[in-house]
Amino acid sequence: MRPTLTWPAETLLQAQGVRIVFFDVDGVLTDGGLYFSAEGETLKRFHTLDGHGIKLLAQAGIIPAVISGRDSAPLRLRLAALGVTHLRLGTEDKLPAAQALLGETGLTWSQAAAMGDDWPDLPVMARVAFACAPPKAHAEAKATAQYITTAEAGAGAARELCDLLLVANGQYDRLLQTTMGQAPAEKGAP
């Protein structure tokens, strides 16, 4: 099976070498809508495509990290189910949170990507090697991004970024072939 996804060469070159990805939650991993229960608990809807993309990143050795202004038990449960252990929740000042995660992982800004949708995400997006935004992000986030997804937030946008990074870093084909129960094709083979 041959991969069907493609991106412009310049986009893939910008995304090469990424080893950690900072994801926002509201407006990136979710559609940004907030649901409140009668007890005042905040509920969010996550898309399984995005979750599987995050798992694939980890399988490829790219660290998924989450930095969000909100914190909730359902969010922590979802991130735990995805195996995300690098997170900072309940912080509006995302730059120091990202810097701390880089310090913990021994990585640098030149090895980082970020996906955000609004002003709190801009300081991180402006420093990473590759910034991404969903199509309904705030104008400033889209202007800062090198790539704007075609899929909407909470409906596959994060998966689109994950796939792009996997292709850029030479891991997509290997993971796809493994999923299909096949050995990855040799380079240069038809």
TrEMBL record:
A molecular-function term among this protein's GO annotations: 3-deoxy-manno-octulosonate-8-phosphatase activity
SUPFAM superfamilies membership: HAD-like (SSF56784)
Protein origin, superkingdom: Bacteria
Residues binding substrate: 26
Cofactor(s) required for function per UniProt: Mg(2+)
Binding site for Mg(2+): 24, 117
Keywords, comma-separated and alphabetical: Hydrolase, Magnesium, Metal-binding
The reaction(s) this protein catalyses: 3-deoxy-alpha-D-manno-2-octulosonate-8-phosphate + H2O = 3-deoxy-alpha-D-manno-oct-2-ulosonate + phosphate
EC numbers, comma separated: 3.1.3.45
Coiled coil: none
PANTHER family: HAD SUPERFAMILY MEMBERS CMAS AND KDSC, N-ACYLNEURAMINATE CYTIDYLYLTRANSFERASE
Quaternary structure annotation from Swiss-Prot or TrEMBL: Homotetramer.
Sequence similarity: Belongs to the KdsC family.
Protein name: 3-deoxy-D-manno-octulosonate 8-phosphate phosphatase KdsC
Lineage: Bacteria, Pseudomonadati, Pseudomonadota, Betaproteobacteria, Burkholderiales
